[in-house]
């Protein structure tokens, strides 16, 4: 039995939001699609962009994340039209229920962005969360959806596609990767709508993979562990990933981070009854270190997302990466000095450029 979706809303129309909305429009030309914009200024920019999304593709996009080149590669633009928009200020007065909300804000923006939509989301809604890091769903459940019976069905997603915005509603799909997702188990009856959303995602030509929840959690934890051991060091030392393995001082920091991360995640897996021989091995300090080194080698010329955030003086997602590990370590009373030091150092950088902006 197939269920058709009345409409898909996309919240957070930056780089990844433009990618997702553009692909949804291209693949499903008749699907009603609405962008949820922050405010009237964002709506004015949408009108100035002729209510059109532009997604650029390097003519030879293949393989993982982009490598910086001296001459910019040729970009081929595809336009997506026939998309509606509403602002969050309209949303707080609007009452029409939202069937499917694809959320592509940064992790730290999500709660505030979703709050005005709360009254339009219930157990019949499906919310797809596509963010780096961990902890957003739990934060939303605590702050906005404390009653399990009226909670939307969540789908968590993660991607290795690489995308950067060049202007409002204009982004370049610079690295072709994959899109992985899983329906989060809930105490509510299994929703046909969640299946319909899963089918929609699976039909996108973005190398999508639906995974069982336990397998997907391991994927998220692995990605988080690697990001936590690479991103803050590159951001603090303003270096590309490859520099971490050629610098003995950074190698020592990575070793400490891998030790701490391994202990924290092993406890987390035990608590959530996810521990087994494979996960024990994958999250052992040695295996984790080897994995981190391999990622640094294969992405040697890349700037991590946190390094890019610091370069552009944007807030980072540290609270949902190393910060998430710190919160677990605090619950388990496990020492976490290296993660703590890095979180504090990144917060200090963020505070510094916030002060510069306010000056
Ligand atoms: N870009 C990538 O290649 C990539 C790859 C993998 C994963 N990710 C992850 O995907 C997530 C999104 O990343 P991104 O690069 O797309 O970030 P982004 O370009 O900064 O997009 C976030 C968008 O959310 C909007 N937003 C924030 N608060 C809002 C609110 N209250 N109401 C409405 N809109 C709001 C922002 O609008 P304003 O500009 O007005 O703030 C911005 O357009 C992040 O977690 C990131 O780590 C990104």
UniProtKB/TrEMBL annotation:
InterPro entries to which the protein is assigned, alphabetical: 6-PGluconate_DH-like_C_sf (IPR008927), 6PGD_dom2 (IPR013328), ApbA (IPR003710), Ketopantoate_reductase (IPR050838), KPA_reductase (IPR013752), KPR_N (IPR013332), NAD(P)-bd_dom_sf (IPR036291)
Pfam family, one: ApbA_C
Source taxon at top rank: Eukaryota
Signal peptide: none
Annotated Gene3D superfamilies: N-(1-d-carboxylethyl)-l-norvaline Dehydrogenase, domain 2, NAD(P)-binding Rossmann-like Domain
Gene Ontology cellular-component annotations: mitochondrion
One Gene Ontology MF term: 2-dehydropantoate 2-reductase activity
EC class: oxidoreductase
Enzyme Commission number(s) from the entry: 1.1.1.169
Domain Ketopantoate reductase N-terminal: 8-183
UniProtKB keywords: NADP, Oxidoreductase
Chain ranges of the Ketopantoate reductase C-terminal domain: 219-349
GO biological process: pantothenate biosynthetic process
NCBIfam families reported in the protein's UniProt record: apbA_panE
PANTHER family cross-referenced by the UniProt entry: 2-DEHYDROPANTOATE 2-REDUCTASE, 2-DEHYDROPANTOATE 2-REDUCTASE-RELATED
Family: Belongs to the ketopantoate reductase family.
Protein name (Swiss-Prot/TrEMBL): 2-dehydropantoate 2-reductase
Gene behind this protein: PAN5
């Amino acid at each position: 039995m197939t269920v058709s979706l009345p409409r898909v809303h996309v919240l957070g129309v930056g780089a990844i939001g433009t990618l997702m909305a553009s692909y949804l429009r291209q693949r499903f030309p008749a699907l009603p699609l609405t962008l949820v914009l922050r405010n009237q200024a964002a709506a004015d920019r949408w009108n100035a962009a002729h209510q059109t999304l532009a997604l650029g593709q390097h003519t030879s996009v293949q393989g993982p994340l982009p490598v910086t080149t001296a001459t910019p590669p040729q970009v081929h633009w595809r336009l997506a039209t026939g998309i509606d928009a509403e602002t969050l200020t309209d949303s707080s007065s609007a009452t029409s229920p939202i069937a499917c909300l694809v959320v592509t804000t940064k992790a730290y923006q999500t709660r505030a962005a979703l709050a005005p939509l709360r009254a339009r989301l219930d157990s019949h809604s499906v919310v797809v969360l596509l963010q780096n890091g961990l902890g957003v769903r739990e934060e939303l459940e605590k702050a906005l959806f404390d009653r399990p019976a009226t909670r939307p069905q969540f789908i968590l997603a993660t991607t290795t596609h690489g995308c950067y915005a060049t202007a409002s509603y204009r982004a370049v799909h610079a690295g072709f990767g994959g899109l992985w997702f899983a329906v989060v188990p809930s105490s509510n009856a299994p929703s046909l709508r969640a299946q319909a959303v899963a089918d929609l995602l699976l039909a996108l030509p973005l190398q999508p993979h639906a995974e069982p929840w336990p397998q997907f959690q391991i994927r998220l934890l692995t990605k988080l562990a690697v990001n936590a051991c690479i991103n803050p060091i590159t951001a603090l030392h303003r270096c590309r990933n490859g520099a971490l393995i050629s610098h003995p001082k950074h190698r020592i920091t990575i070793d400490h981070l891998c030790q701490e991360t391994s202990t924290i995640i092993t406890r987390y897996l035990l608590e959530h009854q996810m521990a087994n021989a494979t996960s024990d091995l994958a999250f052992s300090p040695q295996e984790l270190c080897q994995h981190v080194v391999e990622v640094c080698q294969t992405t040697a010329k890349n700037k991590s997302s946190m390094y890019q955030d610091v370069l552009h003086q944007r807030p980072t997602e540290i609270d949902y990466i190393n910060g998430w590990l710190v919160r677990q370590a605090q619950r388990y009373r496990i020492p976490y000095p290296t993660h703590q030091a890095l979180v504090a150092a990144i917060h200090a950088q963020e505070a510094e450029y916030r002060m510069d902006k306010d000056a």
